[in-house]
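Task 17 of the worksheet. Students: predict the tertiary structure of the chain below and write it out as structure tokens. Keep your answer in the requested format; marks are given for formatting as well as content.
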Amino acid sequence: MKISNISFTILCFLSFLAFRSSAQTDTVGINTIISKTNKVLNDYPQERIYLHFDKPYYAVADTVWFKAYVTENQNFLSGLSKVIYVDVINQRDSLIETLKLPVNGGIANGSFPLDQINYKQGNYHIRAYTMWMLNFDSPAYFNKTFYVGEAIDKEVKTHISYKNLSTDKQEKIDARVQFRDANNKPYANKSVNWKVVTSYTEIAKGRGTTDANGYLTISMTANQKAEYQLQKGELITTINTTEKDVASSTFQLKNAIINKDFQLFPEGGNLIAGLTNKVAFKAIKSDGLGISSKGTITDSEGKQVATFTAQHLGMGTFSLPVEAGKSYKANVTYADGSTQSYPLPAVVASGITISIDNAEPDNVAVKINANDTFFDQNQGKKFYLIAQSKGVICYGAQTALSSKTYSTTIQKSKFPNGIAQFTLFAENGKPLSERLVFVQNKNNLALALSSALPSYGVKKKVKINLAAKKDGAPVEGNFSVAVVDETKVPANEDAATTILTGLLLSSDLKGYIEKPNYYFNAPDAKKAADLDALLLTQGYRSFAYTDVIAGKLPKISFLPEQGIEISGILRMGNGIPVRKGSLLLSIPDKRFNLEGTTDPVGNFKFQNLVFNDSSKVTITAKYNVNYKNMTLSINGAPTPTLTRNFSAADEVLNIDSALNTYLDNSKKQYAYLHVLKDVNIKAAAIPKVSHKDYPALSGLGQMADHEVTGDRLQGCGLLINCLQGMLAGVTFADNNFYVTRDYNAGKRVPMGIFINGMNVDVNQINTIDPNQIESIEIFLRDELGLVNRANNVNGVIVFNQKKAPKGTKISKAQLMDLLPKYYELSFSPGGYNKEKQFYSPKYEVAASMNRNDLRTTIYWNPKLMTDATGNTSFEFYNADGRGQYKVIVEGIDANGNLGRSVFRYNVK
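Model answer:
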């Protein structure tokens, strides 16, 4: 049922409401708060995105299939944005690729292959967003971590565990690594070289030999105050698998040293003197996962006043009677036996707070408590209670403070499913207390899946029926279905990302949520209490009421995209804009042409274009008078900055072990894909330009400490800016480059800058074309001191430019073709990614039955629709795998109701 927006509502939640006048001149009425809030909610709706994937993890050579659901207020399918972006980012927070997909009625379908060139074994994360989302401070991007295994030509499997032996003065990590071959046989008595690399700098290295079971223990140490820390680096091992062959493996060290933290959150926001406060807590490790804990609360006099025990994933609550003038601390004992004490938030001498009991199935019990001091100072003043959920004001009430305690119950049917935000305001509009509550109504969208038989044979046709109902009535809905061989794709159901966790929980909360589907998978009273503890300890993603009341509206820089748009400006060579200039846009592979005209200041815009990501686009101004003196420029497309994956806690360290069953199947499935081993071709090496070509630098060592190849500078604008942070062991300060270790030690002698063997001023760097650089060599040490002393420098940076190639004579016409045509641009702007169809084989003839079918995703259909009767069905053929198959259907109806159902059957 759609909950209508209301401009003003006052619901009497007290039997003795007493409205009193106030002498304050800065009073803000509840009508004003609600109307301003409604304006922000209606005029600036927040879009949410959920992506349904066919599987939780993959192998190289797989294809990732997904469906995007884009929603707005009340979880209605969004009519705002018509374009969605999906970024694939690796474990080093580098962008692998971006998919641009058209959105039709809030729905988009996509896929991408995990090719052997761009994807290797490791952890990745998906980020999905619309341009409209970029306008807001805390956009609800969809984020999901997934991991990819490697089975093709696998030479070594590894399993690593860490032991932290660090002290206050020294980092020390012992890593125990097991090396196995593709058949799980240990690599016994094999030589292993290892090194630790941090910020492109090798900080530790060593060598060892595996034991009879393939194990090697590697001890790594570093000073706690060292410039390069072990914990920020990666361990790289190289094992001699045969006399001639070696295989490398890389392990992240960021979670090798685990720290613990304990956070405390008073209900309503403050610890108020004179009241019994409910306090939530979260015990969390530095890897983002919760840790079980228990302990006591003592006051400033050392008296024990409360005890606590974590109820779920390190979270829990306790009651604390708070006295004025006292401070409190939590004495925590973690599951590993370690102990630590943490101070509670400072006690507030005067305050009022919201306390909520969400245990009843039909009502939310709300209590407002004020302590004596606050009541004496504010007796008779007006206070407002407002609750909003999913972009709608669902409840509002006001009263005069005539008692220290108010209690009421509010029907949950007033709220949509999901998180409701209760806020208590003073009469001047200042928020005083806030509480989040999860509302789970009984009338959910029910999806019933059924089949004619409980089990089927291999390669046999299966028909699954779907019936969708809401309050017993049939529902038309938009759904996606994935069928997987669960024997090959085992997964923790509690850790799953679903349409319910995505659109009802994660999209409204800030930060990482561990095992989100635990709260929706067979919910009961304990899980409801655990979910309440989660909401007490998690930040809420919403607008700030203080900004709303002050009239500070969000700054809109990006309108909802309605299609692909190409815009820019046409100028004369002297910079003057061309008014009413004629332009022609062409897309050759679409046989598409579109004329355009610039506005009075030279701007042009081509809107609602449709073309593929591989299409070339040409825009020309050659149909204007004096066109050869015109210059076209294209506006860039905005993109959100790449940030650290906040769901990194879902990353897997030992992928070989975690995906053992899956990768064993992938090895057979992709047996036809082989990569040729390196073939050595002997030929005369083409000499590379280096410092050795210049006599002035002959005193330097044969090998540079670090080298930056020219291809890393592609796309660089201002070279000196690109180099800051790219040169390992080098610090840029005061417009000079310094050797970092010496600079930190107080030695401020700049490094020498040499371009083609000549010592130049640092500003000369910007005169170099980055595309003409062969390499940059960094010498942090001048062992003989010849170059340092001769040039009064400390360290050397050598810029080696490419040698000019020997050319051949060309005609004048050929030369003119090579010169840039500033009045014409040809480029690949990146269109929509092509929608691919999932291949589902049909075993209707005997000949097709003989081929092996090792599929793990048996069926994928992102376009499943129920009709007016609420029914639909789909058919597919099983693969060769025997065991349990899992059918997952997720989707949404026209009223924003969400549904998910899981069905299993056996294949014998």
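Marker's comment: The longest strand covers residues 170-180. The first helix runs from residue 30 to 43.
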